[in-house]
Design brief:
Oligomer: single chain
Distance between the termini: 28 Å
Strand order of the largest sheet: 7-8-9-10-11-6-12
CATH superfamily of the largest domain: Gcn5-related N-acetyltransferase (GNAT)
Radius of gyration: 20 Å
Low-confidence stretches: 1-51
Largest sheet: 7 strands, mixed
Number of helices: 12
Mean pLDDT: 87
Shape: globular
Order of helices and strands: HHHHEEEHEHEEHEHHEEEHHEHEE
């Protein structure tokens, strides 16, 4: 997980009502606040400039507004030769996750901006030239190119065989825009999964906030067998990119290879909506080898991010 977002996940308490079991109330979202922040983005030009770009989730204005709604200190700055850059302040430190997004690299402009920590989108020497030093080596992400309508042919043979099995498993595949009451079961299963596997993801309050800003762009794909939920995948669409955000599968879901059917359903759906890239998230072969094999086997491009960099005063 990008370092900047990871800090938020650990340190931001979820709003009242998030993190409870079934029957909990949906967190209250201040719609006046939503409108005001969207107006600010429009007036300053961030939304218009970024909307046609293939931005990573962490750099999209809708995600920044969602973070603001749950209490994060987010602002957007202009760095010469880069898209408007979304930065977050924690403990007095300004950092960017998967940004800046450069049109043309400009080390001097980067040196003069307030960023102290960067979780870079791509490998580059610009950070060293601008006085940063690398703290962590790059993570890898899996990305499906939806402009390639024959992407399934790029999947490895074992992956395609698993997909074929899913097609013969009598699964009922559905997709719906996220509804806090209707899809509470997905979040409950995810919380239980996190406790069972002993990891911590971003708070579900971000999903609720994102849905209040852009309700058509939080999509839940679910698989049922014999009228019982067996698997789900939740995506956040941001501009021309959709990011895989939450996934869950029961024993029956794994036995029927439900996630293979869900992913192919998601690619068909987002392709029709004009999405050009599906971001499947980080590939972690050490801590989540099964998920990593699923992403790699799908034929997704496995791409290195740029690593984590710290500004060293005087360099």
């Amino acid at each position: 997980m990008p370092v900047g977002v990871a800090i938020i996940a650990v340190n931001n308490a979820a709003p009242s009502g998030v993190g409870r079991t079934a029957g909990a109330r949906t967190p209250a979202i201040n719609l006046d606040c939503v409108f005001f922040m969207q107006l600010v983005n429009h007036v300053l030009g961030f939304q218009g400039l970024n909307s046609g770009m293939e931005l990573p989730l962490q750099q999209h204005p809708d995600f920044g507004t969602a973070l603001e709604m749950i209490g994060a200190n987010v602002r957007r700055i202009n760095i010469k030769n880069a898209a408007p850059t979304q930065i977050i302040k924690r403990f007095g430190i300004d950092f960017a996750s998967r940004g800046p997004i450069w049109f043309m690299e400009n080390p001097e402009a980067l040196r003069q901006c307030p960023l102290r920590i960067i979780n870079a989108e791509q490998p580059s020497e610009i950070y060293r030239k601008a006085g940063f030093r690398q703290l962590m080596t790059p993570a890898y992400v899996a990305e499906l190119n939806l402009l390639d309508t024959a992407w399934l042919t790029s999947a490895n043979g074992k992956w395609r065989n698993s997909w074929r099995k899913s097609q013969k498993s009598n699964l009922e595949i559905e997709h719906e825009t996220f509804d806090a009451a209707l899809h509470e079961w997905v979040l409950i299963e995810d919380r239980q999964q996190q406790r069972r596997k002993k990891y911590r993801a971003l708070p579900h309050s971000i999903i609720h906030a994102f849905a209040s800003i852009s309700p058509r762009n939080v999509i839940v794909f679910s698989a049922r067998k014999k009228n019982k939920n067996v698997a789900a995948m939740l995506f956040l669409q941001h501009g021309k990119v959709a990011t895989y955000h939450v996934g869950w599968s029961s024993v029956a879901g794994r036995e029927t290879n439900a996630h293979y059917a869900l992913l192919t359903s998601a690619t068909d759906y987002f392709e029709k909506r004009g999405v050009t890239r599906l971001d499947l998230g980080t590939v972690d072969t050490e801590n989540a080898p099964g998920l990593a094999r699923f992403k790699i086997g799908s034929g997704a491009q496995i791409r290195a991010l740029g690593g984590t960099w710290l500004r060293i005063p005087g360099l």
